[in-house]
Every structure is written in structure tokens, then in C-alpha cells.
Amino acid sequence: LRDSRQxxxxxxxxxxxxxxxxxxxxxxxxxxxxARNYIGAMQAVDNELTRWQTAVHPDDLQxxxxxxxxxxxxxxxxxxxxxxxxxxxxxxxWYLTRALPLxxxxxxxxxxxxxxxxxxxxxxxxxxxxxxxxxxxxxxxNMSHEIRTPMNAVIGLANILAMSDPLTAKxxxxxxxxxxxxxxxxxxxxxxxxxxxxxxxxxxxxxxxFNLSQIMQxxxxxxxxxxxxxxxxxxxxxxKLAVHEFIGDPTRIRQIILNLCSNAIKFTDQxxxxxxxxxxxxxxxxxxxxxxxxxxTGIGIxxxxxxxxxxxxxxxxxxxxxxxxxxxxxxxxTKTLVEVMGGTLTADSEIGKGSTFTVTLLLETPISTKKxxxxxxxxxxxxxxxxxxxxxxxxxxxxxxAPNVLVASVFLDEFGxxxxxxxxxxxxxxKIRNIQYAAVLMDVQMxxxxxxxxxxxIREMEKQQNRIALPIIGMTAHALAGDKERCLSxxxxxxxxxxxxxxDLKDKLSRLLSKKAA
Length: 518
Ligand code: ADP
Description:
Layout: H1 2-14, E1 18-22, E2 28-31, H2 33-39, H3 49-55, H4 58-74, E3 78-85, E4 92-103, E5 109-118, H5 120-163, H6 169-199, E6 208-211, H7 212-229, E7 233-240, E8 245-248, H8 250-266, E9 272-281, E10 287-296, H9 318-324, H10 330-340, E11 344-350, E12 354-364, H11 380-389, E13 394-398, H12 402-414, E14 418-422, H13 425-434, E15 439-443, H14 451-464, E16 472-476, H15 483-490, E17 494-497, H16 502-517
Bound molecules: adenosine-5'-diphosphate.
Adenosine-5'-diphosphate is lined by residues 263-264, 267, 296, 298-301, 309, 315-317, 321, 326-332, 355.
């Protein structure tokens, strides 16, 4: 027995770790060579407990004791990271201490067998990496701030430039591109700033009362233009919202819903987007579980990508994303914001059918005896409808003969459309490139570029820019045989003869527009 004990002790002296054994109460009764070198030789004391207390860094002692007590009670593996003091130099190094209890037949602990492994270097590397990450985040935050100031000047001046007169068509096009690039750069910088704040854990949440239905209404009217441009449906339902007033951070909640709605509209070309909000009581009277779902009938997301899309800079499909643009930051920001608020964000989707993003939040409600203020503009569905219908669809009249323009514009006004005028094919193409119209009334015979040629060029441009085909109705003075064919083969959707029958024009326009929206 003595031989095998000596063999074992020699073995423990050959390994680089410190090895020790302790009595059931934790008092040390054996240290290998490495342990003796570091924490000092065993003294002839009965109770070696004090050695632990003097060797462990005072800041780590509490945690070590708690873990020890837990292991004593349960017999589970004892494992802590702690700083241990060198008995001569007084220097502390990080160690991983692990110990397992040896038990007798009755299950009583008779001994602890433990090791201390030096993890100082690992700790230093991790700390350096964390410091570097913080430095990077600070740099990102500072740079984003710095870039925003000159960007505001660029955007402001581009806007002023766009309003100056006269401008050639080319100049207008350049300014438009400048404005669009500056806008997307600014939104990228804002996203980066958000990411930096999130990584530095400096997102500060407000805690103020707000009206959730009102936020939804604001979002509905902000989105209505884009929804109209893409000819989508946009519906909302807040009828299952038991209360409307909550306490929280309305700016961040607006940002979360806006991000999800923008994605839903961006990735949907047909059908529409539906927002629904509901709330349920919880065990606590001043807390409500609020659920916000944004459902679209868009391109959908493959099952395998449903998890990764929430990561930074990740997009579901690079080929699809070349078409839609974006940076892959939106969902990462949105999910983190939801989680900072203690909520969850989940996605459910089927490729080709559409997606649903669901936010759940536990929101406080004001404890007030006052009656809740009514939502200013009625229910969510009605406001969505209102902001949709107040947006008149605009029809471009391409016609070089002023009296005809007048006639067409009066009818369009009567049918509930707004209108714009281009005097020839070239002007029409320029306008269509820059402005989103619902449809075009195109005169076929015009000086300069005629309607057929203009239509061909418009179709070509749409193909190049991956745009949805704009409904174009040709207008001809004489219903010559073959006119219809010429119009259709140039790429028009339909044609009418002048002087036109108002009912015919109304019918053809609404048919084409509903076809586009379907
Ligand atoms: P971005 O839109 O800038 O690419 P996001 O983080 O907002 O970045 O979204 C990440 C990716 O998730 C998108 O690129 C897209 O592939 C996918 N995605 C997000 N929302 C939808 C949606 N409503 N329908 C289809 N795909 C979506």
C-alpha cells in the first residue's frame, strides 16, 4: 500500500498541474511538488483550511466558498476559476480548480481529489480580445457620429440643388442618384451606430407612457407611399388590443416595427402586408403580454435560413439580395432591441408563400384611475385604409396637344386619379425613370419620339432595372386596322381611340391597375 501510494505521489509530481487532496471538510492533507512550490509546503497543522483562505484572492473567495458548499451538499464536481497567490512573490495568477469527492460505501465523502491548472495566459488573451472588441466598437460609434455630420450637409445641399431651376434632364438624373446614394449611406451609418451601441451594451431604453395604436397608425401612414408604389395591400388589426396605453420606449418600438414592415414590403411584389397587434393580461395586473405580428405574401425564407437571418451581415440569399439590396443588419438590430426589452422575435416562413415575424413584449401599463385617452384617429384598420385611399394613384398623360391633355386630365380627376403631363416621348421616359406612376396614357402620334418608340424604350428600361411593368394605354386618333396590334407589339397593355369614351377609359384603367395589384 505504501509503495503504491509513493508511486502515485511520484506520478502527481511529474504532471505540470498542481494536485492536492483534502479531508471531507476541505482542509488540505496532501500537495504535490507543483502545489508546494506555488502555495507553500504543507505545515504540520491539523487543519490546512486556512491555507485556502490565504491563497485565494479575496475577491474570488466568496464564490469559491459558495461553490464548495454546493459540492459538499450534492457531491457534484467542484469547479471554479480563481486567482491564487504565490506564497513567496505574492503574485496572483488565474487557476482553474477542479475537485471530485471520493466516497465510501455508504456514500459519505471521505476525501477530495483536486487539481489547479494555470489559465493565466488564456485569461489574458480573452481579456485582450474583449478590450480590442470594446475599442473597435467605440471606434465604430465615433466614426458613425463623425460621418453623420458631413452627410447631413451632402443630403441637405443635394435637396436644395434638386429644387433649383433650370436643370437639364441629365443633371436631374445625377442629382436623383446623388440623393438616393446619400440616403442609403445615411441609413447604413445609422445601422452601424445601432450595432455599435448594441455591442457596447449602451442602448438606453426610455420608460415613458405611449399609445401603441398611435404608433401603428404613424407607421401605416409612413409606409403607405411605398405600399402604393408597389401596388400592395396593407391592412392592420388592433381589435384584440385590450389597452392602448403602455410604458416603455416608443422610439425603439417604432424602430422595431418599422424595420419589420420595411422588410415585409421590400420582399413582397404581389399581395400585401398585414399587421396585427393583440394583448393579454398576465398574473401581474400592471403587465400585459403584447404580440405584434407582421405577415407578408412575399418571397419567403427557406427553413434553413430562418435562424441565420438574425445574425449581423447575413442575408438569406445573395442572388435575391442583389435585386433587393440591403446590408443584413436590420434584423440583427431588431432582434437585439426586442431582447434588450426582454421580449422575443421569431420568424415563420414558407418559400414563395410569405413570412410572418412575431414580436412579443411584456409591457407595463400605467396604473392610473384616469380613463384611457381614446386613440386619436379611430381603429388601426380604418387608419391604414385612410392613408391608403388618401394616396391618389398618379397617371402620366403623354400628349403633345394641349386640349387633349385637358380632356384626359378632367376625366382622370373625376375617376379619382391624380395626373402628371409629359409633352413627348423623351420627357415621358425621363419622368418615368424618376417618378413612380400607376399607369401611363400614351399618345401614339407625337412629334419627336412617338408613343410606340417611347413604349419600347420604357419596356427596355424596366427590364434593365428589374422594374415591374408599368401599365401603358395607347391613345390613337384613328382606329386604323392594325393600330391595336402595333400598340400591343410595342409593349402597350391596351389602347383607346380618340375622342375617347370616358367609361371605356375608366374601365381599362381600373382593370389594368387591379391586374397589377393582384
Ligand atoms: P437586409 O434587409 O438589409 O438585407 P435584414 O437583416 O433586415 O437585412 O434581413 C436579413 C435577410 O432576411 C434579408 O436579406 C432577407 O434575405 C431576409 N428577410 C428579412 N425579412 C424578410 C421578409 N419579410 N421576406 C423575405 N425575406 C426576408
